[in-house]
Every structure is written in structure tokens, then in C-alpha cells.
Amino acid sequence: MAGERDVVIIGGGHNGLALGRYLAAAGLDVLVLERRGEFGGGLSTEESTLPGFYHNLHSNFHGILPFFPPWTDFDLPARGVTYFHPEANIGMPLADGRALVLYTDELRSYEEIARFSRADAEAWLVMRGQMAAHLEEILAIAYSPPLAGEGIEEFLAGEIRDWFGQDLWDMTALEFVRSRFENPHVQALLLFHLAVGGWDIRLPHTAGLAVAFLGLITNWQLCRGGSHYLGHVLGALLMEAGGDLREHCHVSHILLENGRAAGVVLADGTTVRARRAVVSTVDPTQTFLSMLDPEDLPGDFVESVRGIRYGHGDVIFGVHLALAEAPRYPAAAFNPDIDRTFNVNIGYETPEDILEHYEEIDRGAVPATPRLEVAVNTLFDPSLAPPGKHTGLIWQFAPYDPEGRGPAAWRELAGEYAQRCIEAWRAYAPNLTPDKVLGVYAYSPHDVATKLVNMRRGGFHCAALTDKQAMWMRPTTSLAGYRTPVPGLYLGGASAHPHGGIVAGPSYNCFQVLSEDLGLKPAWRPKLWDAAGRALRERLARARAKA
């Protein structure tokens, strides 16, 4: 493997694979290096409980299709990538026997919200209409290098005010939802959707970001055959285009020559030189404080990297179940579709329930009352379990360092806490008796950070999605444009704009920057948001000229 390539990419998660495919299609000799023996990163599907039961350990709910750039650029449907988009998409059974379900059918969602509040149903249609009218601008912000520079806050505040008829810039997501909706259960379901996306709904400047996320609230989808299938196809497409993908290749450090990134050195001493660029899709702490000598970097830059926050609002304790039967909710008497809803909220019945969990986790406390995000993927993809059987997924927000005992304390806590999570689900679905639970696999934040070291402190966004680490500040202002202080070295992973999750935004945007720097011809078809992005930048230029 020693030798030279045009571009060396560190990390074989979906961003590294997608970026490699884009670059290879543009005619470059590309090598993607993956530390583990399984590429795909969070696109991981394993038989964790019993043979024949397949569980998505990390990424399960994919919410950006069909806007995921590789979907059309790589023609993923023609490669066998299929998604299920359940009609009953997100919902919550309530302890009082009712259920609130939101559907892919907008009017059906309206009708269900109206059962709780007619005013909220009307507010729902208004909000969804505003989002649909500005979807292209929202996508343009996500799928292009971030708008940045002088006056950007005032500009974006004005744009968002024009789009949504409300001054949202300084608001929290919690304040936004409460300003538009009155029923606590409706509020809770909307806030649950934001929270499970990794947002801290209490932070200022998150309302505008929240409305973008709420625009896709009923777009949760499931990859047929397990999330790993998407990762495997992306790897195959990289190699089909002439790129190279190697596993069990741990990058020890990035090679510098005359201050420029010139390649990488592996842990076994192998050197791979890069003629044109090195791209890191792993977190900035690894990239700049481990793979480089901080002495070779500007002091203020090193301090900004040391200040990046990880594992805030995006740390999850997982429980994976092999089930003899699917859960049945008494709330199905109110709405039968709750039994076949994809993304289900268990126990977050009011905003105060969510806030209570945030406060516990802030203290490092394991939540006293488990409240859950659950799914039964086999309701939609029976191939994930033996005939007649089911898989169950439980995710619970949790602290990385429980009770100040160190993350390894999860080894002692995980088994008992997994049972408490199962009991919390059973309180809403009493048929999930112990004899129906055939296998249990507890997957703690410590396990996440140990297995996928890019997810520092167990955070699935790889750099926390906070108001201080969003858009032109993600992960720092000096790194937000994908270029770094080291010539020839770029960032293209989940720590970059727009965020983590299976969105391919960092890789797609990094390729735009590389295309400009390396003189590459864009290897994609025009997107629906391209014109909106150009218009946004033109308005920003006029605003600056006027100022």
C-alpha cells in the first residue's frame, strides 16, 4: 500500500466513502483508510442478541432522503438501496390511553393533532406550509459551504424572519415550539423530534435551526437489509469508480513537508504520500492533537480545537432486543396506527419530561425514570429477524460519565439499566412480558466511544450540535470552511457543517471546496437547491454592499 495517491482520506464512514467516490469520479487516484475491520462508521448492522436478529447499533432513523446527495448522484436505487418510509411515521402513546401519531400524509397529521387541539392543528399547517415554501433555501444552507463573514448573523436573522414571519434568531427551540403550539403533548412530540436529533432545545439561537429540522419530522426512513447495506454500497461505488478502500489501517500521524500535508503514516510504519490533498473525516481532536504535533500549529488554533465540545445532547444508551412478538399498545384503542408507527416516543409526554432528563444528564445522573425512543424495524423489514419474530430498538439519553464514576462504570450499570428501560417500554406495551424478550444487548455510551473513537464521549454528531458549534462556527470558526491552517489538509467528516448523522453534507460540501482548490469538474447533476443557494449568496453580497 505504500506509495503515492492524489488524495488520501482518513476514515471510512459514509462521509469518507462518499467523498472518495466524488473525487474518484472526478478522475483522481483516491485511497480511503479505515481504522476498523468494517467500513461504514455508524452504518452498522450486527447480530447482537441472537443469530438471525439484525440490529442497527448506531444509525437507524434516516431522515434526509431523497435529498441525500449520493441518492441521485450515485443512483443508489439502481444499486439496490431501498428504503421503507412508514406512513405512521412518528408518534407517542400516552399513559392516559390516547396516542398522537404524525403521518407522511399532511392532512392526516392535521386530523390527529386536532384531536388534541384544533388551534395546534391549524398552527401545524401554517408551520408546515412555511417550511415547504422555503425548503430549497434550508437545503441550500445545509448542502453548501457555510455562509460566513461580517454581518452574517444579522443577515440570517432577517432571512429567517422573512421565511417564518417571526423573529427567531435569539429564541430557543423550546421557546419556538411553545410560541406556536398550546397542547403539552403536541409540544412534547415536536420537541422529542428535535431532542433525538441531538439538539439541546434549551440553547439560544436554536429556534431557526429547529424549524429546519421540523421540516422533516415525518421523513424518518429505514434502510432495507439494515443500515450497513447503505455503507457497503457506498464502498462498492468508491471502488467501482477506481478508488481504493483499505481496512485495519490506523493512521498514526499526518505527514508534513514544508508545512504542507504530504501524506499519512500508519501505525505499522507504512507511509502513503498524497500528491494533492489529505482529508480527515475523523474528529478535530484526533486530527490536530493526535495525528499532528500541536507545536506545528498556531497556538490560538490549538486552543480553539481543545475547546470543542463533545457529547452534549447526542449521547445515547442503547438496548437491542430479540422479541417473540411486536409490542401492542393499549393506546391502539384510541389510534390503531400506534402499533405500526416507526419512531415512537415512550414517556416524554410533556416538555417538562424532556427538561427533567436534560437536567439529570447535566448533573451526570443516569435518568431515574427511563424515557425512550423505540422502534420495531421488523414491522417494515421482516428480513431482519427469523419468521414471525421481531427486533426491538431502545434509545435513552444518558451521561457519558455516569455519576462521576468514569465512563467504564457503564460496564457495571448497563445490564440493570437495560432492564429498567425494558420495563419502561412494558409500562406502555404490557404484552412485552419477560418471556417475549428472547435476547437483550445493552450498548452504553462507553461502548460507543470505544468502538467508534470518532464519536468522542459517545456523541453521535462527533462534535456536539450546540449554538456555539453550528453553521459558520462548526466545529470552530477557523475550520468551518473545510480548509484548515495546514495547507493541503481538509476536514470532511461529521464534525463539520452541517452536522453528523447520515446526511453526507460534510463530504458533499468538502468536495465543493476541493473542486475549487484543485480545479476539478463537479461530478454531480444540478440540485433543486442550487439556485436557492446562489440567490442567498447574492442577497448576502447586496446586504454587505449596502452596509
Task: Give a description of the structure.
With 547 residues, the protein is an alpha/beta fold. The protein has a domain at 3-47 and 225-310 and 456-546: FAD/NAD(P)-binding domain. The chain is built from 17 helices and 18 strands. The strands form 4 sheets. Strands 1, 2, 9, 10, 11, 12 and 18 form a 7-stranded mixed beta sheet that branches. A 7-stranded mixed beta sheet has the order 7-6-14-15-16-13-17, with helices on both faces. A hairpin with an 8-residue loop joins strand 3 and strand 4 (55-56). The protein is globular. The mean pLDDT is 96.
Based on CA inertia axes, which overall geometry fits? Answer: globular
What is the C-level CATH assignment of the domain at 3-47 and 225-310 and 456-546? Answer: Alpha Beta
**Helical residue percent?**
25-40%
Sketch the major β-sheet. Answer: 7 strands, mixed
* CATH H level, superfamily name of the domain at 3-47 and 225-310 and 456-546: FAD/NAD(P)-binding domain
| Number of DSSP-assigned strands | 18
Radius of gyration: 23 Å
Pick out the low-confidence regions. Answer: none
The computed structural class is: alpha/beta
What CATH architecture of the domain at 3-47 and 225-310 and 456-546 would you give?
A: 3-Layer(bba) Sandwich
CATH topology descriptor of the domain at 3-47 and 225-310 and 456-546: FAD/NAD(P)-binding domain
Amount of beta strand: 15-25%
Helical stretch tally: 17
Residue-averaged pLDDT: 96
In whole angstroms, the N-to-C terminal distance is 54 Å
